[in-house]
Each structure stands twice: as structure tokens, then as C-alpha cells.
Amino acid sequence: MVTQNNYCRGRSGWFSPSLISRWHASAMEFICELDEDRLVTRVERRRYRCFEDTAVIAYGRAFTNANNLPLLSFKQIKISPSSDERALHERLLERRNKVIAHSDADRQRISFTTECFGWENKLVMMPRWDFDDALEFFAEREALVAWFGTLISATSKRLFEQVQSMSEIRFVRDHTLIVSSGAEEG
């Protein structure tokens, strides 16, 4: 029987289930609802940027080292990405690593300005920060949805193949199911 312990130690042939979650695909599908000819407010653009960042983070999760979860590889799910798909994959991981999860200075777009104006007979200098809220992958949103669909399909198919030769599986990892130590709260 597969249990939490032998799964999390990287049991041969198993991979991270986070790709199957569809968070990345759902987030990108929300962006696809945005008409490219429609003007949007900065607040709306930031909302869509949150969706894009969510897609990038969720995508990268399966391909990035995490405690007790094995990495996903294309070989494991038996796919060979095209050169365009591989380039998109690399850009997604670079965006995750250099912009969203970490702040590499060479990839940041920040503007800092001051504006001087009079207030109560004094000159006041007001600082103003402006951060990049552009959508990095907007032009490629349809290609991303297709790529995510390919990965979800291949991952699901591979997982289906793997479980056919196993006994029944009972596996739950839920951080909200913490068993009390039995100590009284007081």
C-alpha cells in the first residue's frame, strides 16, 4: 500500500501532484477573459497581474525543489515539448525565480520620483513609487492555456497508468488535519 511516507520520499516514478491542481490553468483562463482591445483601469490590470503571478507560481511549484516532494520532469510524463513550449517553460520558471518568488534587481521595473508642491506656506516633497504591473504573458495567454492543458493531460494519463499496477491507495496530506496532542488548553 502506498502511504504518505513512501510517497513523500520520492517513490520511484511518482511526481508532485501540484501540477494536476489546475490552479495555473484556471488563473490563465481568467486572463483569457480579458479582451485585448478593452481599456482597463490600473486596478483591473493589477488584478489580472495577480492571476498571472498565481499561474506562474503554481506552474513552477511542480518543477521546483520543495520539502519532501519530488520534481516533475517531462520524461516522467512522457512528453517532448516543442522548442516553443520549452522556451515558454523556461520563461515561466525564470519569471517565477527572478521576479515573483525572488526580487532580482536586473529584472525589476521600479520608478521612484518626487513631486514638489506648496502646502501651508511650505514646499513639500512627496515621494512616489511606481511598480511594474504589466502582464508578461498576455500576448501568449492562449499558448499557455494549451501548454498547461498538455501538461495536465499528460500528468493525469501517467498517474492513471501508474496506479493500475498498485493496490488500493490511501494518502492524505492536509495541514489542517493536525491531531491534538491531548493536552488541555488553559
Report on the biggest sheet: 2 strands, antiparallel
- On the 0 to 100 scale, the average pLDDT is 80
The end-to-end span amounts to 40 Å
Q: Which strands sit side by side, in order, in the main sheet?
A: 1-2
Kindly name the structural category: alpha+beta
The outline comes out as elongated
Query: How much helix is in the residues?
Result: 40-55%
* Poorly predicted sequence stretches spanning 5 or more consecutive residues: 1-14
The Cα radius of gyration reads 22 Å
Question: What's the SSE pattern?
Answer: HHHHEEH
- Total of helices: 5
Work out the number of β strands.
2
Estimate the strand proportion. Answer: 5-15%
